[in-house]
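An instance noted here:
***
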Amino acid sequence: MTKQEALLKYVLRLADNVSILGHRLGEWCGHGPVLEQDIAMTNIALDCIGQARNYYQYASKIEGIDKTEDDYAYLRDPLDYYNLLIVEQPNKDFAYTIVRQYFFDVFHFLFLQKLSDSKDKQLAAIAEKAIKEVTYHCKWSGDWVLRLGDGTDTSHEKMQHAIDILWTYTGEMFLMDEVDEILLKEKIGVDLIGLRQEWLKIVSEHFKEATLTLPETTWSQKGGKQGYHSEHLGYILADMQYLPRTYPGSIW
């Protein structure tokens, strides 16, 4: 694999993560538990999609062919998406959404901190801009972890159930493969293994304050970064891609 091939796949992974998560959060628009949080989730979704646009635009420059951000976002098949499995998991309920968001937000924040030091100036610039938004994302989801975890018996039970289910998807965030190794060697990418302990420390301390317990299992779901997904991605893409496939040439 060449450096350019690795960089393209790396950028698409980053783009797909926030694109799919943004669309997942967008499903809450008009359905939030209260109006203020409905608006908050919609704004976070827009932040994610805006970050995805920046990555997709960069992917177009790397590949050097006549592709737009819309082609990357809407005209690829499921096997050509490289997002983490956790971001495509369904909303189910508000607690499930919060746990999914918090797990990813803390990882995303730590990741962007490192990516802002990348030798790739475009990636560093995208990270520096995105980290301002993700700082708020972490605060929002973290506040809800505390509120629901140390809230009523029902909210605590729902949060713990969501943690037990989603925990097995968190390990994939820290798995390194050939793409990661090539770009780490070039001082472009991030050492994911090095992020794990810091992520775990932050999450553990926060969950302890919220009277929540992390599972002991170390087994992880994986495959999303290589294009192998759960059945949920197909349903997301069916919604996302209907308009551009039905009306070619539509723009954001």
